[in-house]
Specification:
The complex is a heterodimer of chains A (110) and B (114). Chain A has 110 residues and is an all-beta fold. Chain A is 0% helix and 51% strand. Chain A contains no helices and 11 strands. In chain A, the strands form 2 sheets. In chain A, strands 2, 4, 5, 6, 9, 10 and 11 form a 7-stranded mixed beta sheet that branches. The N and C termini of chain A lie far apart (34 Å). Chain B contains no helices and 9 strands. In chain B, the strands form 2 sheets. In chain B, strands 1-9-8-3-4 form a 5-stranded mixed beta sheet, with no helix packed on it. Chain B has a 4-stranded antiparallel beta sheet with strand order 2-7-6-5, with no helix packed on it. Classes of the chains: A mainly beta (110), B mainly beta (114).
Chain lengths: 110, 114
């Protein structure tokens, strides 16, 4: 069982609010990723990190930001939530063999 | 980055063998082929990985021809619980392959009927 955690699992929030989605892993992986996925659609990479103090933007333009101050922690922040941010957010980490995904955060912005 | 092509959807029945083929014509020498499974409202889960010939584990088999331009995921005797989306990924997974970014396409939606 993968040791990667995401909180909250579900979040309903109003437009304009600042939110942070938490992601933690206890496997010591350097590489971590954030994906966004709408129901029935493909996963879109929005951010990734190769290690502490390393962050990059992915293929999907996103108004979110990430930080990587500790190896085990990779939070994603939306400074001002909008209805268009309604989606599922999946965090993952990777060793040299495979990716491990967290359970996801289902975000609804009203 | 090697582009992959796989069928959008497949249907099967319980007890049948299911084969999902993925095309990756521009696969590079150091690239591995990895398959993931995703259930609704969950993150993808690793199924199997290979470089060439055949790989088998307790869940599936992966067949890779000599030219490596395609691969086939084989699920023996599927059950209703195998209904999921299956993704084929290609890339240099080695630690020295630091530029590899796992990219998931639309995947293949497999529906298993009673």
């Amino acid at each position: 069982e993968a040791d990667i955690y995401q909180t909250p699992r579900y979040l309903v929030i109003g437009t304009g609010k600042k939110i942070t989605l938490e992601c933690s892993q206890t496997m010591g992986h350097d590489k971590m990723y954030w994906y966004q996925q709408d129901p029935g659609m493909e996963l879109h990479l929005i951010h990734y990190s190769y290690g502490v103090n390393s962050t990059e933007k992915g293929d999907l333009s996103s108004e979110s930001t990430v930080s990587r101050i500790r190896t085990e922690h990779f939070p994603l922040t939306l400074e001002s939530a909008r209805p268009s941010h309604t989606s599922q957010y999946l965090c993952a980490s990777r060793d040299s063999y495979e990716q491990y995904f967290g359970p996801g955060t289902r975000l609804t912005v009203t | 980055l090697a582009k992959t092509t796989q069928p959008i959807s497949m249907d099967s029945y319980e007890g049948q063998e299911v084969n999902i083929t993925c095309s990756h014509n521009n696969i590079a020498t150091n690239d591995y082929i990895t398959w993931y499974q995703q259930f609704p409202s969950q993150g993808p889960r690793f199924i199997i990985q290979g470089y060439k010939t055949k790989v088998t584990n307790e869940v599936a088999s992966l067949f890779i021809p000599a030219d490596r331009k395609s691969s086939t995921l084989s699920l023996p005797r599927v059950s209703l619980s195998d209904t999921a989306v299956y993704y084929c990924l290609v890339g240099d997974i080695a630690p020295s392959g630091g530029s590899y970014i796992p990219t998931f396409g639309r995947g293949t939606s497999l529906i298993v009927h009673p």
